[in-house]
Automatic annotation (TrEMBL), chain A:
PANTHER family (alphabetical): BLR1237 PROTEIN (PTHR42928:SF5), TRICARBOXYLATE-BINDING PROTEIN (PTHR42928)
Organism: Pseudooceanicola nanhaiensis
Protein name: Tripartite-type tricarboxylate transporter, receptor component TctC
Range of residues in the leader sequence: 1-22
Claim: Transmembrane helix is one of the keywords in the record: no
Keywords: Signal
Family the UniProt entry places it in: Belongs to the UPF0065 (bug) family.
Recorded superkingdom: Bacteria
From TrEMBL, chain B:
Chain ranges of the DUF112 domain: 21-438
Source species of the chain: Pseudooceanicola nanhaiensis
Pfam families linked to this entry: TctA
Keyword terms of this UniProt record: Membrane, Transmembrane, Transmembrane helix
Record protein name field: DUF112 domain-containing protein
Transmembrane in keyword set: yes
InterPro entries given in the database record: DUF112_TM (IPR002823)
Highest rank taxon of the organism: Bacteria
Transmembrane regions: 6-26, 33-54, 113-136, 148-164, 171-192, 204-225, 315-339, 359-377, 389-408, 414-430, 437-458, 464-485
Amino acid sequence: MRQKIFAALAMASAFAIPNVAAAQEADFSGKTVRIVQNFAAGGSTDLFARTLAPFVAKYLPGEPTVVVEPRPGAAGIQAATYMHNSSRPDGLEICLCNSIPTRWVTLKDFELDVRDFGIAGSQPVNTVVLIRNDLGVEVPADLADTPKPLLFSAPSPADLNGNRFNVFAEMFGARSRIIGGFGAAGNNLQSVLTGETTITSLNGDYYAVQQDSVEEAGTVHAFGQVGIPGPDGFVRDASIDAPTFDELIREYKPDALDTPQYKLFSAFNQAAAVQFIYLLAPGTPEAYVQAWETALSKAVADPEYAAAVEQMEATVRPFSDTAETREKLEALHDGFKAPEVVEILMELAPAYFK
Amino acid sequence: MEDIFGALAIGLSTIFTAKVLVWTMVGIVSGMFFGLVPGLSGLTGMGLLLPFAIGQPPEVAFSFLLGMYAVTTQTDAIPAVLLGIPGTSAAQATYLDGYPMAKRGEAGRALSASYFASIVGTIVFSVIFLVLLPVIRPVINSFGSPEFFMLAMMGLVMSGSLVGPNIARGLMVAAAGLLISCIGVAGATGDYRYTLGWSYLEDGLPLVPVALGLFAVPEVMELMASRTSIARDFAVKGGALEGLRDTIRHRWLVVRCSVIGGVCGVVPGLGGSAAEWLGYSHAVQSARDSSQFGKGDIRGVLAAESATTAQKPGAIIPTVALGIPGNASMAVMLGVFLIVGLRPGSAMLNEQLPLTFQMLWTVILANIVVALICLVLQRHIVKLCQVRASVIAPLIITFMAIGATFASNSYNDLIAFAVFGALGLFMKAYDWPRVPLLIGMVLGQLAEANFFISVQVYGASWLWQRPIVLATLGLTLAFLAAMVLRGRRDRAMRAQQAGGGNA
């Protein structure tokens, strides 16, 4: 009997420990915290993390030292796996995991459930699609009748932007083909400028700086952008002179809004809305998740951060808190896993099922 | 023309203003560090130093980062030559002949030759820069996937000169390198190949742990077994003047390799590793007597270093003029444009031309400054070759392990390092050539991706409809024919010598 009581007490105390931890105040005084980012040093994710890091340090309780650590590998999955399996749930490491929500819903063998992590928030990534002028595409309907095939240059056939465009083109009766293998920096853009391919996409921030040289080439134009998610759907980034794809569908193909294609298209947009997600190790006490959520949201709202981003001719990406991010993840999951959507996806993006 | 000379003068005077000069020097010193430490590179440096460029005026930000970027390929030769640690992908060919020279007590000569070759490489490319300036867009636009594929094939054929006396073994190893380059997700189809279900392999095997294992592990093991120093019983010489004399003696080789490297830089997507191996292969291919390559031939060091160094300013051109980054470091440079509020494009070749030339001057200045610093310190640095194995070997192993994992912070890199270390030991012990494995890995990825793109986009017509493809194919066949003829000549000579010996 005494043994049973002892075991019950032990179990009760074991369950009580996380609650105690959750109730305690998060304090990072004198500590070094790490923002792990999942792509190579010097890339756009790294640049983003390094710009944000000093502002996060300012708003974390105790103003710790914040360092950025690149942990690339397996198209970004390596860092998520590390956070899931090896990072301690002590709040001292957070992953700015680029594209992980997309991999979660599109890769057949993705072993992690993003919803298991401590989620401190997310930010969107805008994308601009460039089309060659000699295709003569002014409005989406023109995509169905072009003098050259629609060839979308991308790093891989599983590319999010290429497949989103495929779904979009399909709604207008056109079929584009992703030409994968443009891995090196700048090769996507060069391929479309030289006419080797006819369509490609660029990260919105980078398009802002490349806009002049792209226009000078006189061979391509910005056809559309994903846009920035807002309460009423995706809105244009004002610095990019192109409509959002959602606008184009609503204007030129309103009857497509109830189709499974549009559901899949929206799911791709949801993926863009949470593309930069902030993940803590599963089991991280709630107090630490909240501390990160607050610090990130304050950092993004900091006027000095806005000035730094503005100086880069980029736009401050809106921050979605934990609850909003979880909501978007559910929408993303439901969007991609609906049977009618899976059927279309298998046809348009077979690379996801390999 | 006057405008160009005016812009050149303004660019030159700007780099000598106090603030720009101080920041350039800070960049140079940082770059020396990023080159010296195995596993770090110009790309890592760019990423880490970028925040310090925020808030700076354009002339300071660019000088600071380019000062750092320009010199990493100069100082990475130091661990490669002195300790046999090719810690960056750009130092792998330098190591091949530099380290055997260090073993002979000629580390100083190898290093100073590498510095002078770097300077020549940068200056030669600067001249090319001026020539290419008005026609840069058509030059870059004339290279597509079929041209990349043919260049990779030419590199693979040229690397046939590096297989050593046993051609069958060399070809088998090169084929293994090509197979290893297939590991990971296939760009063309999205298929997972040879990943063994291990997510680490999905991006392919990283080059640095593989090269460190393959080349450095056998050397350090041999060093430990020998219980001597790297330079064994040889007297270690400074060798600065010898290096200069070597550079002058082989000036045309250095110029040719600088042009090869510069072109590899200008054409986005070829990269530093391809530049270095193409330059090195060209040196072997064009040498009358290539028997000493890989055993400490100074021409190997000169070719590799001039090609790698010229590739760097080459990569600046498409980034600045067209907004197309020539390599990953230049993609970060686009970030610098963002930070300083400039945009690449024709403005950089017109109203901002002085700034463009300032970038070029910064690269030249940085190369000269680092060469001078290293030459001054050389007499002391080369003494590392005289340190006892029991002291230096543990340090080398530590540096190698750190270097192998720097890029991804993953223990998996240590596994790759250990596996290729064991393979390197085996290959060295049984006299299998290791270089073709690495070249197969480097050029295999380039060749495969561009072959599939070419076929998907052009069908088969790219084989006969593109002049550069045809010209490269012609050159490749010429190299092949030269190799066959040389092989026959060597066999005949050996037979003649054997016959003479018997008689």
